Amino acid sequence: MHHQRDKYNQISIVSLLLAFLIGLFAMIKSYQLIILFSLYLLTLSIVTEALLLNMSLRKTESIKQLIRGLILFILISYLFIKFVRGS
């Protein structure tokens, strides 16, 4: 059980770090598509944090984090579709 918890923790930390670094690079270079990718990485970090909370029997916080991740995913996907269509 701890092995899976360690994996989720590692995914959460790595995706958060990558989101920061890629997002910073994308803001400096003004790459909007890469900014959306870094937001997807941030969403991944939030979802893995929700899974960690669920494993530690903190169900209420887990559900809140999962809903935050889902809302972010939907909003980022909407922005991605708008970006690709060019509207």
Automatic annotation (TrEMBL):
It comes from the Bacteria. The chain crosses the membrane at residues 12-28, 34-54, 66-84. Keywords: Membrane, Transmembrane, Transmembrane helix. This is Uncharacterized protein.
